[in-house]
Amino acid sequence: MHIHNNRGITLLPLILMVVVFGALIGVGTGVIKQRVQKNQILKADEAMTSAIQSIFSWSIENSALPIWGDNTPDANIDEFCEIVKETHDPWHQGFVYIYAGGLTSGAGGGICGKTSTGISAAGTGNIAFAIVSPGQDRAITSTPGASGAYAGAVTLSPADIASVVTLEQLRNAMGCFSSTRGRLTLLNTDLPDACVGQAYEATLFAEGGVPAGTSPFYTWTHTISASWITAITPSDTHLTLQGTPPSIGTDTFDVTVTDMDGNTFVRRFALAVVSCGLGPDPVSEWDFNEGSGPVVRDAAGSNDGTLNGDVAWTSDTPDGTGTALSFDGNGDWVSVPDHDSIRLTDELTLSAWVKESVSHTYAKIISRRLGSYFYFLGVDNGRPYGGIGDGTVYEVTGKSLLMSPFGIRLQRRPGYDVHAFCRHRASHDGSPKPAAQPRY
Questions:
Q1: CATH number of the domain at 36-174, out of 3.30.300, 2.60.40, 3.30.700, 1.10.10?
Q2: Cα–Cα 20 to 30 A to 423, which of 13, 86, 146, 212?
Q3: What is the mean pLDDT of the chain?
């Protein structure tokens, strides 16, 4: 006789199923946990990448890195918490922002003018800044473990999540290696001609690099073949040459400018001495030294001008004295009524001190047209250009000349020979019309 226990027969599969499902649930929980951790790490990386891009954008505008400050937003937008959208990681811990204090000032060419930072990490020197997340253990084990300016070696812990940006990467992101942005350079590309028997003065302007804290901000060395140059004087950011040439000829002037970090810039200039004569007096000259009001006076004639739009007065002038006019490029200009004296049909010279805050295409500085006859002087993407036309012959010229803080001059001679070059005196022959953000 056999006794069958049906309950015992079904119990074993049930136990096996419970064990199997329990194991599967345990494995599934582990997989989900790993995926959550991986997603959180990816989110931390994305947040740090976004923070780096925000810092890049702010640095491009300000030529400096943002500071850590008191980590409390205020009206002065210069702190990490004011610039970066997400300041915490996915574990709700604040990012640690470590940066080179020397990169927080826009002076001396700003970031583009710097060559070292004083910070290293993982054997790499010249670190500009680093952003560190504590990671899933919610505890910073890297050194330093707090946000702020730092100098020395940064120790990055494998338990933390970190993004590091070198000075070279930052400068590349800012476009420091395009054109001459922030790098030590001489703004002059040539020297004005000297006139036989007349007192001569020309000034070379340096910009960028790492200037000294006191004047002169750069070190100048030079070699000149012109014995008639009797004074070469450095001051602030410029070097001035003076003398009186006795005869016609061409000399060379080799100059080297050096900044505090030892960066150098070398250029050779040709200095021509020509027979000039005294030349005519200006037809009209506006120095914009009124400082206020709607009228600018003609210091040489009777062609006073009237301000139109929201032209603003400013004290930002080439030599720091007097006043100038600032135009925002939106419906601002100075108008001068038509007059016989400015209906120039023979030789003419147009010159102006101009400082652009933003480069524009074909921005007119001085312009006059009467029927088919016209003359104008302007700036095209940071370069001077001008034109003269009489309905039959039309000449436009441009020259490779950086515009800060130089004047430009357009000169017409018989045969419509047109030249644009440096000028050290603010005289304007003609009628000013709208210009895209020029000053002086």
A1: 3.30.700
A2: 212
A3: 78
